TrEMBL record:
Top-level taxon in the UniProt lineage: Bacteria
Record-linked SUPFAM superfamilies: GAF domain-like
Organism ancestry: Bacteria, Pseudomonadati, Bacteroidota, Cytophagia, Cytophagales
Name of the featured protein: GAF domain-containing protein
Annotated InterPro entries: GAF-like_dom_sf
Length: 172
């Protein structure tokens, strides 16, 4: 897996954030089970305070995402498959990282789910296969601005290799 540097903000984690990042590394190295991605998503939600976390696998045609973990307030929801067209997730595929601090629904009028869930802010990051090809994405969404988005991105980057390994295992 490739390590992607955080370059979107001038950011230095504080003492408490470093403890959380250490816990993320420990979580990443635990033995895997069928709930691993949901556990990762719950950890992200708990540490960032976001309402929704989604970890999804990209379809072979690269036009849909099937969620492997979808949480609201750390509660596991039923997995869904949705079209990328007209969503911020589609932007993640082309830009590798995407952050909308406010009014994300206004920027994506065709995205019914964003409107139905009343999403105001969105942060998403691309996940890669072992061959460094897009395999999926992780998305954080909230009905209010995401607090400390720089830390949220940092946390995702720390957890990405473990998430990518699990998505690769599920895909093949």
């Amino acid at each position: 897996m490739e390590y992607r540097f955080i370059h979107h903000w001038q950011y230095e984690p504080g003492e408490e954030e470093n403890k959380i990042l250490g816990s993320a590394i420990a979580l990443s190295s635990q033995a895997r089970n069928e709930n691993f991605l949901s556990e990762i998503a719950a950890f992200i939600s708990e540490q960032t305070g976001v309402k929704y976390v989604s970890i999804g696998l990209l379809s072979d045609d690269k036009e849909h995402i099937h969620t492997c973990a979808f949480l609201r307030d750390r509660e596991v929801l039923e997995n869904i498959t949705y079209s990328l067209k007209g969503t911020p997730c589609d932007d993640v595929l082309t830009q590798r990282f995407c952050y909308f601090p406010l009014n994300v629904a206004q920027n994506f009028p065709e995205d019914k789910e964003i409107h139905d869930l009343q999403i105001d802010s969105y942060l998403g990051s691309l996940l890669l296969s072992e061959a460094s090809e897009p395999i999926g994405l992780v998305a954080l969404m909230d009905v209010k601005p995401i607090e400390n988005a720089a830390f949220a991105e940092h946390l995702i980057m720390v957890l990405s290799p473990a998430i990518e390994e699990e998505l690769n295992r599920l895909k093949f």
